[in-house]
Amino acid sequence: MVYSDKAKSYFGETLNQIQSQGLFKEERFICSPQAASIDVEYPQGAPQKKVLNFCANNYLGLSSHPEVVQAAREGLDTRGYGLSSVRFICGTQDIHRTLEQKLSEFLGTEDTILFASCMDANAGVFDVVLDKEDAMIADRLVHASIVDGMRLCKAQLFNYKHSNMAHLEEKLRESQECRFRLIITDGVFSMDGDIAKLDEICNLAEKYDAMVLVDDSHSTGFMGKHGRGTHEHCGVLGRIDLITTTLGKALGGASGGCVSGRKELVELCRQRARPYLFSNTIPPVIVAAAIKVIELISKTTDRRDKLEANTLYFRKEMTQRGFDIREGVHPIAPIMLYNAKLAQDMARDLYAEGIYVIGFAFPVVPQGQARIRVQLSAAHEREDIDKAIAAFTKIGQKYNILGKKKDEIIKLYGL
Ligand SMILES: *Cc1c(COP(=O)(O)O)cnc(C)c1O
């Protein structure tokens, strides 16, 4: 027998360990489209419950927008369901080129190449751009997909302490002998919602003759005055050499990603990026809908403006009510609770109150930094946010944490 008893018990035991460490991820079934208000079956088999969703990456509320859905339908009708090919054989339609051009215009870059996901974009890009004699200099908190992409690349790896510019400069000095150097960072870091210091990073890059890559998955579509991303927010448009980002968050939330930036680097990805060459093209439905998304957000900044207003409102009100929120301006608003069980218990009670949020603990965040990560959306109306604030206040009172700072919460609940 191929799947032996030994194998079965080994893998079963691994699953038990995951469970006993409290790391088992249970999935919750949503029985409606993604939106501010969703129907959820949780736990499995329980009757459906209507809850306000505060944990999606649906930043602009476009995941189920009628015009986006309609564009997807038209894409299906006019270009079919699938292409049964990679891009370079017979998987490129006119609309793929259109979407790439529109993304370049929106991001303010020279050229763009689509991938099946940003995970794929990150898996492909480093190995294409860099070789043994080069260096990758990455923030220590970059996204897992960048970590994996860097593993697939032969260039020498340097890490700098999270957003620590002095340490980055040290690494730039250390790597001076390398042929090309690429500074690598997330635009926004997903657990704290903090923004990379792109202006300082670009200055250092220029001083030390390095290139810059930013993964802007948590910013594209809404950060910056026109929503172009953190490069717009930080005033460094045109100074970022490579941007990787996703269509799976603010830009409609289906799937897909891209590498956008210097013309030669993008073209080289078309020739050599392995996830591009050896994985299927993005389906026309998604491409057509994504083109509509870019049109919608290029025409008006209403959605990103509303998201910004929602974010400021929630952060201000929650702070006034005595919650300990990581400071910032991003719609990721981490409510710090420090203790893992407290974060889980509060998230469960909030769910009972009709507010869907998730508690995050180690190893997703550092030990002793458990939190509930709230994510605001342009799909939220003021009354939705008020309901969330009221529920948080009620549950915060129950656990006696309002007005308490880190030390006091830890004194009550431990770490
Ligand atoms: C979500 C995310 C990704 C993955 O995007 P997909 O398109 O879903 O693969 C990559 N990088 C960062 C920083 C992300 O937040």
UniProtKB/TrEMBL annotation:
Binding positions (substrate): H143, R373
SUPFAM superfamilies assigned: PLP-dependent transferases
Catalytic activity: glycine + acetyl-CoA = (2S)-2-amino-3-oxobutanoate + CoA
Organism: Candidatus Fischerbacteria bacterium RBG_13_37_8
UniProt key word Hydrolase: no
Pathway: Amino-acid degradation; L-threonine degradation via oxydo-reductase pathway; glycine from L-threonine: step 2/2
Binding site for pyridoxal 5'-phosphate: S190, D215, D216, S217, H218, T246, L247, G248, K249, S279, N280
Name of the molecule in the record: 2-amino-3-ketobutyrate coenzyme A ligase
Subunit structure, as described in the record: Homodimer.
The encoding gene: kbl
